[in-house]
Batch of 2 targets.
Target 1
Amino acid sequence: MSGKHGVVLYGPPAAGKDTVTRALTELDPQYAQFARLKVGSGKSSGYRMATAEQLHALETSGDVVYANARYGNTYVIDRPGLDAAFKAGVPVVHLGQVDGIQALVGGYPADWAVVLLWCSREETARRSEGRGDADTTARLVAWDATREDLNVHAAMAWDLTVDTTTTSPQESARRIDQLLVQRAEVATA
């Protein structure tokens, strides 16, 4: 693929964003999860940990593409981080807010494939408990917020929708990869 191609995976907690990203990376190592900046505490794996001062510096320089607060932390998609991710390959950005998708697609020029990964609230609870999350209740609150977000943004156009309760991670990855290949072919035609 030529040009800047990226993937946005949107969905509630435990919908499979991490699992599908791993399957994408196994399918083609050019895919890599975008490590958002995280200001706060808790899980640091998969994030670039930052301080409030570093976040303030990014805000001052206009390099925050999107930031949101959840689970008592601030999560940031930053321009320098995206620049580095695109130099390395095809970033896969995980988001749980439609506003975040709109900020990213509108605020960072690239060919973004926007994918809705979905599972039921009950499946989120089952998966969260199954992986030993200590904050399953908070994840169910986030699931409810995601459902409301989808209701508010009912006109949102998805490039691809995948029900992860009936579609394997490998098949999900294959569909996403095929979507990007088709978009690249159209762009070069």
Target 2
Amino acid sequence: MTNEMVAQKVPIRLAIMGEGRMGSLIRSTAEAARNEDGSPAFEVVAQIGFDLSVADSAPAADVLIDFSNVATLPAVCAYVRRCGAALVSGTTGYSDDQMAELRELAAAAAVLHSGNYSLGIAALRHATALAARELAGFDVEIVETHHNQKVDAPSGTAKLLLDAVVKTEAEEGRGEYYPVYGREGMLGKRDPREVGVHALRGGTVAGVHTVSFFGTDEEVSLTHRATSRQIFVNGALAAARKMAGREPGFYGFDEVMFG
């Protein structure tokens, strides 16, 4: 999208991967979004569901938004390469090899991948890094809760929070911290450098993430609660506005939204 198009308030052309709850909510929100002058902010030119072959002939978009699942990655990459669209990806559960594919894609297109598109989660991640820096020697545990339909665990957001802890501890020269995913049996005493990561599943919970720091005779817990998926949709569409027309590269959420 050129600067001239932005000045003329030409709608950003969107393609959406997935027709589930997130895909449907992204579409309805995008179609209702307006610029300051009342003109449409987005035009949804394609939405790709279970039949991934549709991506081979779907109209070109400025941005592809993908909150589907890991199985769609080949179709996502093929569409982005064919159309030159920027990618806003919120799909979680990728393997290391699949993340490498996304990074390779960034040589040809602007790619943003994040496990969470909430501004509140961004603040929680910053607060987690600050607490890890200030609370030297405290034990760290992460607990995430989601609805009973979520297929991957731990959540992408929990991994972001874990990364914030591990990176901060390394920067502070405190050694290599590592995750322990749940506990069972006679494990012996807790290693001071382990970070417990626990996943709860049930009901219709949109998402709750808590990072707890346990010291001697005191505890600090940081919690973010999402009451609906709308916050993630709003963040993804805000990111789509900023990603349209960007140069190829692999971008982070903070870089795009706050840079």
